[in-house]
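Researcher: Sit down with what I've pasted below and flag anything odd:
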Amino acid sequence: MIGTQTAHEAENLPGHLMRSEIDETPDALARILANRDAIVEVAEQIKSADPRFVLLAARGTSDHAALYAKYLIEVLWQKPCGLVSPSTTTLYEARPDMSDVLLLSVSQSGGSPDLSEVTKVAAEQGALTVAVTNTPDSPMNRAAKLGIDIHAGPELAVAATKSYTAQLLSLYLLIDAIRGGDGSDAVRIPELARFTLDSTATEVAEAVQRYRFVGRMVTTGRGYSWATAAEGALKLAETSYLTARTYSGADLLHGPVAAVDDQTAVLAVCSAGRGGQAMPEVVNRVRDRGGDVLAVGSATSDVSAHLRIGTPECAEELSPILEILPVQRLALGLSLVRGGDPDNPRGLSKVTKTR
């Protein structure tokens, strides 16, 4: 009875949902790989259409998955790609010619009216439309010609965690299949995700204690890892109520670095590959400004940081799936020590309906 009560009490503690959903990530990633054939079928239809340009529509966390996809599309598929501004369709009623365009709409819920409208109008204007969502029966999915189920399973915490990493892997497998890949580089990702969660717990706990009183944080990365930095800033802002801003490493040096001082924490995502190779200069500059640097990724030893959280090395384009895991855990821990409830951040709901 005591053990049962303890388990029941744990289920009602703040952060229980977010914690358990982060822990479910490796299983979610394994489900995606098990269902890769369905993604390949969508990829074959896209290849047959041979689009000349790709557009991505997303909001919130999914916008960062779209940013990741933009790098995949431009680097691996060698197609030009852009991010949609949904308000041009919903508020300004723009109806551009979308002939020979692929529109990828990315959303955990598929329930935001603006994304459904963008998808619907794009199809009417000639685009091949594909919905990437955790909710196959959602309005956005119904508006699209093709759909990809990210198989994250139910996600109840307001802060998206496993659905984000599921989006990343689903988008990678899609673009990899379009370019003729067999997905082999991703086979060990579930195993590496579990290792990342198990091996970084101590470092994450140290980071929570180090930054529990910080008031503002800058997150930064280059290449594929910029998506991780952007999603990290969102998680810290929505769960811990930090003033968190994100910049690519290049943009940071073009001006915002002037605002960094000894009251600023800097989360620098540094993973092996070309993006990570560009980060030492960025980290040196923010340290010169007095910033307290937390480096996360598989190449943290290459930069001069105050604290490091290492992740396993893998193909550079897959590293964001692993990098974000300790950052999600950091957001969870900071929220709890600052008296928050990361499962139910103030003023937020699971499905945000914008127009």
Observations:
- DSSP finds 16 helices and ten strands in the chain.
- The chain has a mean pLDDT of 93.
- Residues 319-337 form the longest helix (19 residues).
- The two ends are 50 Å apart (CA to CA).
